[in-house]
Amino acid sequence: KKLSFGTQPVWLRPYRTTTLGTLKKVIDEARKRNLEFVTMMFHSSELMPGCSPYRNSDREVEALYVLLEEFFRLLHEYAIPSVTLSGAAQLIQELR
Fold first, then answer.
1. What is the pTM of this model?
2. Cα–Cα distance measured from residue 35 to residue 57, given in angstroms and rounded to the nearest whole number
3. I need a surface site. Which of 20, 40, 67, 82 has the fewest CB within 10 A?
């Protein structure tokens, strides 16, 4: 299934059904468009079983950790650094 970058945003967000392939498609599209930043979002409560409707069990939380590890490995392969929101703001200021 092709990702749509039309009028609806495509989230770089690890839902239960999100695969590394989906995250890779978002990154590949961002690279094609020469975007300076992409933002990954998830709730910290998703890192604890049962604290979020998105991650109800130990197995689901472990799957998130595995997906994030694979994703950060992909970013490393692409030589894409991770920064905090504050770090991104500082980089933007430096570019101006």
1. 0.81
2. 35
3. 82
Token pair, residue 70, equals 């694979």
The 10s digit of each residue's pLDDT in 26-85 is: 999 899 988 888 889 999 999 999 999 889 999 999 999 999 999 999 999 999 999 988
Nearest of 8, 7, 63, 18 to residue 40 by alpha carbon: 18
CB of 43 closer than 8 Å to CB of 73: no
In this prediction, residue 60 carries a pLDDT of 94
Instruction: Check if the beta carbon of residue 49 is closer than 8 Å to that of residue 60.
Output: yes
If 0-12 CB within 10 Å is exposed, 13-18 middle and 19+ buried, where does residue 75 land? Answer: middle
* SS3 label, residue 40: strand
**Quick one: pLDDT at residue 8?**
59
CB 5 within 8 A of CB 55: no
